[in-house]
Specification:
Layout: H1 2-21, H2 29-37, H3 41-44, E1 50-55, H4 60-73, E2 79-80, H5 88-98, E3 109-113, H6 119-122, E4 130-133, H7 147-157, E5 163-167, H8 171-174, E6 182-187, E7 215-221, E8 224-228, E9 241-247, E10 252-257, E11 260-265, H9 271-286, H10 291-298, E12 308-313, E13 316-322, H11 328-340, E14 345-350, E15 380-386, H12 390-399, E16 407-410, E17 427-432, H13 437-456
Parallel strand pairs: 1-3, 1-4, 2-3, 4-5, 5-6, 6-9, 13-17, 14-15, 14-17, 15-16
Antiparallel strand pairs: 7-8, 9-10, 10-11, 12-13
């Protein structure tokens, strides 16, 4: 098998050369080549001395990039899987890039984004020293089913040596791999919290121990909040990393840690990204950093532009924001956030799963778990539904009570700008999924040009 491993490494290295010659970069193809030749490639390749894994339904890409940026700001270069993907072939690709031809690793530390289901085939040969699970929520019907299904996969395959950093405000996440060493992070009560779920999805209503109805002290969204069972005493855990005093005017948050407390800057006002900051502080503290040092390192980092960006064009703002298609909860959070913003808005829906067109089923069920009702708001002037899902989106918006006169249909994503009203200074949101980032990149300049052209008239 060792000879097969070397052959796999050499062929994968050659594939990198071929990719560069043909102008293809950022692919998991080297990992696919390596695994075809040696399915247990990860067993034989040398690992860094410290391995940090980051997983969960939403936010793992953002947090992985932030941890890498924080370490880079401190002069530490890490083995990471940004060049490939968060599945097995992508992680193998990262080791092909990060090791020499004989499988000797060039790095002391690895920071790896790990797809939740990949743990089943990865953790036997790679054991993270630290694993952050940011949340486990409902995802694509066609892939991830119920979050408890994903929690069981993680629990059944978790290495005993792995220390877990878990979201204590998510009771599904908090109960993963109960025998492993763990710490929790969470956020104390916020002004926007409620006591009854207002979302279509709430996947933690019943006590997992005695099947009684859970009571919530407060709910943040869906099943995220602080709960207890009035019958058996089951409850949300106490958090070693506790965020509080969230200040959206000053864009900062206070976080208590086992190493002390400090005030940290927020990178974005979306509640997902507030949690991401608390999770980031937890990871960096577990790596040995003090709160003051973490706050200093955070001054120079930002959320990657592929997730969120704002472009000013005259009196208009173009807000480029990821809204994962097929992920009802993630899109619900985006819609809720948009509805709370004070400005007038127009939205472009460019979430059309283009990469799946040849293989996906005609399943639009996720839209009926998603809270499109948040968009039924007077501040939204127009929604442009685009591409092959435009009629599905229109139907769902109308069922949510949205005025049909404020719905426009564009045959393709790149034609959407022509259907904007641009009647007054406003925010124009371009929403796209993980598979349509490239389409969004093409669409943004078209929207900019449309705004400028109409401004001349």
């Amino acid at each position: 098998m060792k000879l097969r491993f070397y052959l796999a490494m050499w062929m994968a290295k050659l594939s990198i050369v071929a990719l560069k010659l043909t102008g293809h970069n950022g692919t998991d193809f080297p990992g696919t080549v390596a695994l075809k030749i040696c399915p247990r490639f990860m067993k034989y390749v040398q690992k860094p001395g410290k391995i940090i894994g980051i997983t969960g339904t939403n936010g793992k890409t953002t947090i992985t990039n932030l941890v890498i940026d924080m370490l880079a700001a401190d002069g530490i270069s890490v083995l990471e899987n940004n060049k490939g993907s968060n599945t097995l072939s992508g992680i193998v690709s990262s080791f092909v890039y990060g090791c020499n031809a004989f499988g000797t690793c060039k790095y002391d530390t690895a920071v790896l984004e790990i797809d939740e289901r990949t743990s089943r085939v990865l953790f036997g040969d790679l054991e993270p020293d630290i694993l952050l699970i940011n949340n486990l929520t409902r995802d694509s019907f066609m892939r991830n089913a119920h979050p408890e299904f994903i929690a069981k996969i993680l629990t059944d395959n978790m290495p005993a040596k792995t220390k877990l950093i878990l979201n204590g405000d998510d009771l599904i996440t908090a109960n993963v791999a109960p025998t492993n060493e763990r710490v929790y992070f969470g956020i104390d009560v916020m002004d926007t919290d409620v006591q009854k779920c207002v979302n279509l999805i709430n996947d933690m209503q019943i006590c997992p121990h005695c099947a009684s109805v859970l009571q919530y002290e407060y709910l943040r969204y869906h099943h995220i909040g602080k709960a207890y069972c009035p019958n058996c005493g089951f409850k949300s855990p106490e958090c070693e990393y506790r965020g509080h005093d969230v200040n959206l005017k000053k864009m900062n948050i206070k976080i208590d840690t086992p190493e002390g407390k400090n005030t940290f800057r927020l990178l974005n006002e979306n509640v997902f990204n507030i949690y991401n900051v608390v999770a980031l502080v937890a990871v960096m503290t577990e790596l040995g950093y003090k709160p003051k040092k973490i706050a200093e390192l955070m001054k120079g980092i930002e959320i990657v532009a592929s997730r969120y960006d704002v472009i000013e064009v005259g009196k208009y703002r173009i807000v480029k924001q990821m809204s994962k298609e097929k992920n009802a909860l993630a899109s619900s959070r985006v819609f809720d956030s948009i509805s709370t913003k004070p400005n007038k808005k127009e939205l472009i829906f460019a979430m059309n799963c283009r990469g799946d067109e040849k293989t996906w089923t005609e399943n639009a069920a996720w839209m009926y778990d998603c809270d499109f009702e948040f968009l039924n708001d007077d501040s939204i002037n127009n929604i442009v539904c685009t591409g092959p899902r435009r009629y599905d989106y229109k139907l769902r918006l109308m069922l949510a009570g949205f005025d049909e006169k404020k719905i426009s249909l564009a045959p393709t994503e790149l034609e959407a700008a022509k259907y904007l009203k641009l009647e007054e200074p406003e925010d124009v949101y371009v929403l796209y999924g993980t598979i349509t980032i490239d389409i969004a990149e093409q669409l943004i300049p078209i929207v900019e040009q449309e705004i400028r052209e109409r401004g001349k008239n």
